[in-house]
Amino acid sequence: MSRHTARWLPGLFLSATLPLLAHAANPPGGPAYGPQLEGFDYPYTLKHYAIQTQGQSLQMGYMDVPAQHKVNGRTVVLMHGKNFCAATWGDSIKALSEAGYRVIAVDQIGFCTSSKPEHYQYSFQQLASNTQALLKALGVQKSIVLGHSTGGMLATRYALQYPDQVERLAMVNPIGLEDWKALGVPYRSVDQWYERELKLNADGIRNYERTTYYAGRWKPEFERWVDMLAGLNKGPGRQQVAWNSALIYDMIFTQPVYYEFKNLSMPTLLLIGNADTTAIGSDIAPPALKARLGRYEVLGKQVAGLIPRSTLVEFPNLGHAPQMEEPERFHKALLDWLDKPIP
What we know:
Layout: E1 6-9, E2 12-15, E3 47-53, E4 56-65, E5 75-79, H1 90-98, E6 102-106, H2 124-137, E7 143-148, H3 150-161, E8 166-172, H4 180-183, H5 190-198, H6 202-213, H7 223-234, H8 238-254, E9 268-273, H9 287-290, H10 296-306, E10 310-315, H11 322-325, H12 327-339
Helix pairs in contact: 2-3, 5-8
């Protein structure tokens, strides 16, 4: 969907168009996008929420898609992963909306269509607070929260921080099912992450995701998401994007939620592609440790045992993003669980 004109409403910047900074000229090797992913099309109308945070005026991109057909009065909030965006939830938004849910998919500060501040103290608490402010502005008092990958860590923090506002919690291959730092993974400084992020390119992203996310498999439709991430990292805001990415990696590594899974009070669904091997820092871990990290076929069961009101659904042979690998199978499992009365 193309981005059109923009207009202000109190607290909300409704934008269907940002300047297409890099759309006109796609360089060899794929497109380049602006620092807020200008030039990349989202599946539904993109809006922006103006937020004052840490002394700065920033923007959060989001999609707010109404329920189709029989409206059930419930809202699902979608939280994306580190190498993903709200746009990667496209199939899930469609499935949930057609099932009667209002769906809000947010790009967090530092990601995708949202601001990339020069200085920001990243924490999952801060991102949860930002999201809660957006939902309050949109009139959402209670929601179902669904987080993928890093979004699973954020969804956990959000549910712990605002338990009365979370009807149910669902997580898709969340990272943070183990504490990499405590297990002995070496620490990378923010400066080291920054240098690493500056070197990102489409080939490296594709090879990493094929190996780590998809158990060696690849589908043509995944190329769009490689272009999205690579284009953001090669565009005119590449240093800005890389710096924020480095700060976010430091947050992920140093702020585990693992020890608080036992405190989740709401019904919680774990949707696990058990061929996933994602683990932050595994590339620099000693070989013996690396072999033990990111084993989702084990981690899913372990964490399901820690969460008091948990349900575990496993997808054999699927990787890090089962909602993208086999959408129909994934959405059936999700909607079946959502349809069941809360015990």
